[in-house]
Every structure is written in C-alpha cells, then in structure tokens.
C-alpha cells in the first residue's frame, strides 16, 4: 500500500477487495438470519440456486434493498427437506423467506454474496397466513365475498372458459372427465402459469380475456395439488378482486385438501379438485336433461287428456241437439193430431192446409237438423284433427330427443371401445390404473380386452 503526497492511502484493486472481505468477516464472523422477499430466482445446471432477497415494497414502488443469495447444491437438499416437511414447497419468486447465511465478499467479481445454509419455514407460513387473513378481512369489509356467488348459474351450461396450465395433470383430469360424460362441451382454454412470479398477472389476464367472450357461460379456474407455498398464488389480491367482479360465475378447483384459498372464498362455487369441478358440471347438465324429458312426458299426457275431454264434450252437444230436434217434431205432430180429431168434418180444407204446413215444417226441421248436425260434425272433425296435430308434435320431438340420447349412450358403450382395440387395466382391488406411478413393482394387474382378461405383474 502506498501513500500519495496528500497523505491519502493508495490501494490496488486486490488490496481493497481483500480489506473489504476482511472487514466483512470481522463484522459478521458467524452466520446471521436475514429475511425478505425472493426475486429473480434462477437455477443453474450444476444444481445451485441464485436469487435476490429484497426488502418488500408497496405495489408500484422500488424496493429499498436487494442482496444476492447463493444456495449451493451442497446445502440445497437440506433446505428443500426443511421446506417440504413444513409444507412450504420449493423456493420461488415472491415467497417471503427468512434464511440462515454467512456474509462473504468475492474479490474476483467484486460482489457481496449471502451463502445460504438454512431456512426458517415458520416465518414463511406465518407471513402467508397473516397476509391471507388481512386480505380476507379487507375483501369481506368491502362486500366482495358475495357478488360472484350471487350470479345465477346457467341451468345447462355448455360453453365453458377454462383457466389453467395446458398439459398439466389438472387440465387432463378436468377435460377427461368432461369427455367421459358424452355431452357436447365447448371449452375455451386460456393457457397460463398457475404458480411463480408471473402467475398472478397471467391468471388475472386469463379471466378478463375469457370474460370478454360474451357467450362464455361460466369460468373454471383449476390447478393440481401442491404445498402451501405453491398454492399461495390463489391468495393474491388482484386474483381475488378479478374473480369477485367477474360478470359470469367462477368455479374454482384448486387441489388443496385442508386450506381454503381466498380465490375459493370469493368464487361462485369452490371444489377440492379439478375433477370435482368437471363432475359437478356433468351432473348439472344431466339433471337439466332429465327435467326436460319429464316436462316432455307431462306435455304429452296433458295433451292426450285434453283431447279426450274435448271429444266427450262434442259428443254430448251433438246428442243434445239431436234430442231437441226430435222433441220439436213430436210436439208439432201432437198438435196436428189434436186438431184433426176436434174438427174432422168442418175443417177438412183447413186440415189439408194444416197438413201441408206441417209437412213443410217437418221437412224444414229435418233439413235444419241435418244441416246443423253436419256442421257440428265438421267442427268436431276439424277440432279433432287440430288437437291430434298439436298433441303429436311434442311427442315426436321427445321421441327424437330420446333417440339422440340413446345413440350417445350406445356410442359410450365400453364394450364397443374394447372392440376397437382399447383396453382397461385395473389393480387387484378393481381400481382403474390412470397413472403409471399407481403401480409399484410387484403390483398385480388385470387388463380387460374385447375377448377376455390378461393378468400381469409390474416389475422394477
């Protein structure tokens, strides 16, 4: 080290870097605990993890501090085990974290680095829980826990918006369950991340995009199971507000078994898994079809009953008209008989005239009666034709609808699927094998094909 003429110490770069490192090691001889928020996380090929631990800042403002952290592969397994046992999950961007670290200075790069060796999972869980409770109470105080749940559900939804990561197990479970129903679903998918730094903005954008499609009847937001940290994305304030203000019902199927996310609270309906959401949709459409069939049967029954009542009324009226006409003829005949008996000699010419009038009246009455009868019979026939035509129409429509359902059921016949070369593999207890991970070495399997069954054993 040299001194300039003014008495100022002159260092080489190496000398100053060594002095800085010595000072840091002297100031921080032992490990320290540092807490902050994970940002810009990267994982290297050798297995090291690098990120910045920043001071949390309000939305739209710059963080006041940022420290680089290195979690080397030698310590990563220990840290991951601690986080996994506490159900925190892997370290990811945006996660609140309290780490154990040593403070070091790398002279070759001129950078200060925190070498992470441990972690306090309780800090992360407590922070997430307190933030979740604070946000939940704020949303409740604003009345945002109810609006989406009060929207009417469509009686038989068919066009669905889906927010999830395409290619994930959640996407496969949801779509497979819909396909197995045999109903004609129209699913509009908004592919997005469901965890990590960009997941919050991606989910909000996906919901808003689907809402702009005016023919989308409802939106399903789904993801598979995960740790408490993985699922913390769905405790996000922007996501919660977007769901609460959505113009169509939002159904959530987030794979948690114990906790309920804030997204679940503000949604229309919350289900434990993506599959459960699809099952609920299938059941709703099936119920609507059953109600339609019952309504069709009721229409046909009512139509037949009213037709029978109308025929009975027309028959009664026709009979009454005929009786009245015959009674009128008989009355006139009696008058003639009495007149002929009273004045047989004095009124011969009057009798003849009277007979002529009676004959004329008789013919007129007969013609009138016949004309009236024909008119009523024509009205009866026209009414019968109209009732028959209108009563058969809903019956024919119901028959065509039932034929369509019958064809759909026939198309879903498992035996036909097997005949086309497909097979179904089950374990000894009858559980359908959907994932190779379900079958551990030594597991006995029974595979059903078109003409019988094949028994096998899983080998390592």
Q: Unreliable runs, pLDDT <50, ≥5 residues?
A: none
CATH architecture of the largest domain: 3-Layer(aba) Sandwich
Q: Order of SSEs, N→C? A: EEHEEEHEEHEHEHEHHEHEHHHEEE
**What is the averaged pLDDT score?**
84
Amino-to-carboxy terminus distance: 67 Å
Percent strand equals 15-25%
Largest sheet: 5 strands, mixed, barrel
SS-based class: alpha/beta
Give structural notes:
This protein has about 450 residues and is of the alpha/beta class. It has four domains: about 1-120, Nucleic acid-binding proteins (OB fold (Dihydrolipoamide Acetyltransferase, E2P)), CATH 2.40.50.140; about 130-270, Rossmann fold (3-Layer(aba) Sandwich), CATH 3.40.50; about 290-410; about 415-455, no CATH class. About 50% of the residues lie in helices and about 20% in strands. It has eleven helices and 15 strands. The chain has helices at about 15-25, 75-85, 120-140, 170-180, 200-210, 230, 235-245, 260-265, 275-340, 350-410, 415-420; strands at about 1-5, 10, 30-45, 50-55, 65-70, 95-105, 110-120, 160-165, 185-190, 220-225, 250-255, 270, 425, 445-450, 450-455. A five-stranded mixed beta barrel has the order 3-4-5-7-6. It is elongated, with a radius of gyration of 43 Å. The mean pLDDT is about 85.
């Amino acid at each position: 080290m040299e001194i300039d003429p003014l008495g100022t110490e002159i260092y080489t770069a190496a000398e100053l870097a060594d002095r800085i490192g010595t000072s840091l090691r002297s100031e921080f001889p032992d490990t320290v605990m540092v807490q902050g928020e994970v940002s810009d996380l990267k994982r290297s090929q050798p297995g090291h993890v690098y990120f910045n631990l920043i001071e949390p800042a309000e939305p739209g403002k710059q963080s006041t501090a940022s420290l680089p952290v290195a979690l080397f592969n030698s310590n990563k397994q220990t840290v991951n085990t601690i986080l996994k046992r506490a159900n925190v999950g892997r370290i990811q961007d945006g996660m609140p974290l309290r780490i154990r670290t040593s403070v070091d200075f790398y002279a070759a790069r001129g950078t200060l680095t925190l070498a992470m060796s441990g972690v306090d999972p309780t800090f992360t869980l407590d922070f997430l829980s307190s933030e979740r409770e604070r946000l939940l109470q704020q949303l409740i105080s604003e009345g945002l826990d109810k609006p989406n749940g009060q929207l009417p559900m469509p009686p038989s939804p068919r066009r669905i918006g889906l927010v999830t990561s395409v290619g994930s197990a959640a996407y496969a479970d949801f779509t497979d369950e819909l396909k197995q129903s045999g109903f004609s679903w129209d699913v509009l998918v908004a592919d997005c991340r469901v965890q990590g730094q960009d997941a919050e903005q991606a989910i909000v954008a996906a919901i808003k995009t689907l809402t702009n499609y005016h023919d989308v009847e409802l939106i399903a937001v789904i993801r598979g199971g995960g740790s408490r940290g993985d699922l913390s994305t769905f405790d996000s304030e922007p996501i919660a507000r977007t769901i609460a203000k959505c113009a169509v019902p939002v159904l959530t199927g987030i794979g948690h078994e114990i906790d309920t996310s804030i997204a679940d609270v503000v949604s229309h309906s919350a289900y434990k898994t993506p599959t459960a959401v699809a099952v609920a949709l299938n059941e709703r459409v099936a119920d609507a079809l059953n109600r339609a069939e019952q309504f069709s049967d009721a229409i046909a029954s009512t139509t037949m009953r009213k037709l029978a009542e109308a025929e009975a009324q027309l028959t009664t009226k026709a009979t009454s008209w005929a009786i009245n006409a015959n009674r009128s003829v008989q009355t006139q005949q009696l008058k003639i008989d009495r007149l002929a008996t009273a004045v047989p000699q004095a009124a011969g010419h009057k009798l003849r005239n009277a007979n002529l009038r009676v004959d004329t009246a008789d013919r007129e009455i007969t013609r009138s009666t016949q004309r009236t009868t024909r008119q009523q019979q024509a009205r009866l026939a026209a009414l019968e034709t109209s009732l028959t035509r209108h009563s058969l129409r809903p019956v024919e429509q119901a028959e065509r609808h039932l034929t369509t359902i019958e064809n759909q059921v026939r198309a879903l016949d498992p035996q036909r699927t097997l005949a086309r070369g497909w097979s179904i593999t089950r374990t000894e207890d009858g559980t359908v094998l959907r994932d190779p991970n379900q079958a551990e070495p030594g597991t006995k399997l029974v595979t059903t094909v078109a003409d019988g069954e094949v028994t096998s054993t899983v080998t390592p």
